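Posting for a labmate who doesn't have an account.
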Amino acid sequence: MYTFKTTRRMGRETAGRALLGTACCMTMFAVVHVGLGASNRAAEVADEQYRVLATSRTSTLEHELNEAAAEGFRFAAVMGGETAFGGSEVVVIVSRDEVSARFSYRLLATSKTSTMQRELRAAAADGFHYKAQTVFETRFGGDEVVVILERNEREPSAAFEYQLLATSRTSTLERELETAASIGYELVGMAVGETSFGGNELVAITRRAITASVD
């Protein structure tokens, strides 16, 4: 009887060790599988040269742009308009950037040029610089001018101040551009769209470098 009990106990211990070994093997397999999956995803991201971001919400686009920038991408191009599946959208293309700089992005969207100029100047004070602009129709009606700004997070760049010119007459725009140029502004971008405040307008963005004053 004593031998029988001992044999049963040894059998249970052997079975327990076998189950424990199986569990350890399964855990190690899961860890290796997850690790390989993460490595494969990292390799896929590293092999990407371009990524297309498309949304009807500028807040979403700003978030996705900054996520892509954190993975080594940089803004390349933008266009607003009707897409086959998403309706009116802003579509941005980012490309793999080989330089060591780290960038962040801010998007400005409004149908009022006065608001845009105020926000542009505030963003410039935070170190952001103009990259591109487009116009797209919002889900609430009317068109918005969307401006994409970029900031180099690793080294400071030149400081600028911005001025927006908006008019429905090309002759007026030409005159205003000449006036702006005479006081040091240069044209960096232009869009044409029907804004909710000005109707069909030409919206031009100009900027000039801020020089440090010498006391």
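Reply:
Got it, the structure tokens are right above this. The first strand starts at residue 50 and ends at 55.
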